[in-house]
Please model this.
Amino acid sequence: MDYQAILEEIAEEVQPFFGKGRVADYIPALAGVAPGKFGMAVHTVQGETFHWGDAAEPFSIQSISKLFTLTMAMRFIDDKIWERVGKEPSGNPFNSLVQLEYEQGIPRNPLINAGAMVITDYVISHTSDTRAAILSFVQYLAGSDGAAYDEQVARSEKETGHRNAALAHFLKSYGRLDNPVDTVLDVYFHQCSLTLSCQGLARAFLFLANQGVFPQSKARIITPRQTKRINAVMLTCGMYDAVGDFAFWVGLPGKSGVGGGIVAVDPGELCLAVWSPELNASGNSLVGAKALELFTTKTGRSIF
Ligand code: GLN
Model:
């Protein structure tokens, strides 16, 4: 399949959708990102790579980082993670407080903020220098594409993340965190501040399209069963309260972040990453979701 030609067609066809969303500004350090940025990268399990636009430019991956920590936690304790976090779509915004109280501090899934904090808590309990451990895991998967923490974004989130702090205290009050709230928040804000490009993301998550094996080195990251679990959770929870829409229009497991990135996995075939900072009302990249919809429509690739 000529993915390069398809990416070029998509870039043309998404033009009318620019200017219709809004760059996330609740994290002040993200508000200054140029809204017209747009990149796409496709990495296939066969080793081919395709990219378009700003695909090599690192951006704030935000909630996409939840996939990295989920993978790490599964490597450490496997299915034990489900003791403190559910696996159902939330149907609510990613930072909902009301749902967490209603459900006695058991977050609906690991891809909303509260669930990701529980996962981060597990990772902290199994690493000595957690920030360094997360960074080196991401760098290993993303290769030469240079993942890094953006200290300015991490600080900005820390200064303004009152809602996330409330979620963490709520979890602690229900006994769902083993580590101090400040420690969990510090790691959580740092993982959200990680920067990667579309190319780095498409490479990093290729193992999810390849039964848990990293195609470049043939190293096993997780088991096929764990891979199935993560892809299932992505499909049902990766786009927050717009997950049904995404399954309907795109038809692939995907994970978004408020930095405007989305990664999508076509099991057995490829990993695709897009970036466009303007978001829709659910906090997902508006142009990014449109680009993915066009990709699966044009290629006929979807899990359905
Ligand atoms: N750092 C963001 C937050 O906690 C991540 C949210 C997101 O990307 N959806 O609010």
